Amino acid sequence: MLNKKLQFLLPDFENSTELPFISEGIKAGFPSPAADFEGTRISLDSILVKNKEATFYAKASGDSMIGAGIDNDDILVIDRSLEPTDGKIAICFIDGEFTVKRIKFTDKKLFLQPENDGYQPIEIKEENDFMIWGIVTFVIKKLSTLK
Questions:
Q1: Residue 121 region, left (φ>0) first, then alpha (ψ -120 to 50), else beta?
Q2: What is the CA radius of gyration of the chain?
Q3: 52 is catalytic
Q4: C-alpha–C-alpha distance, residues 127 and 119, integer Å
Q5: Which of 4, 59, 64, 109 is catalytic?
Q6: Is 81 a catalytic residue?
Q7: Helix extents (H) in the chain
Q8: Active-site pick, 101, 104, 141, 144
Q9: pLDDT tens for each residue of 65-121
């Protein structure tokens, strides 16, 4: 997934909204008696953003990372302050384009690994204009509905 038009957005902390939070969890198996709404409130910003100055959002485009749970139009939360390490999912800039891929180090080589068998890994070579722009920390997705 290479995308020149990747749009980065800054979190809007001044208009953050706290909403009710069911801290006991919602059963995905058998239903349980109604949970108490004890008034716990959270702001998603406080969950998703650990470093305000280094966090950005971007919309995913394409299907190369579906195996990692990243689908087209998902919102990616990116922290530029985190150290890129083997296995992390990163926003990378390569030869004038942005892409989201898993970082893979092998035998002194760096690869950008897609999570879809329809795509080949990208080996980073010295001649590439390359940088790891940030590390993806969360994915926000809209659930599809049956029609």
A1: beta
A2: 18
A3: no
A4: 22
A5: 64
A6: no
A7: 44-48
A8: 101
A9: 999 999 999 999 999 999 999 999 999 999 999 999 999 999 889 999 999 999 999
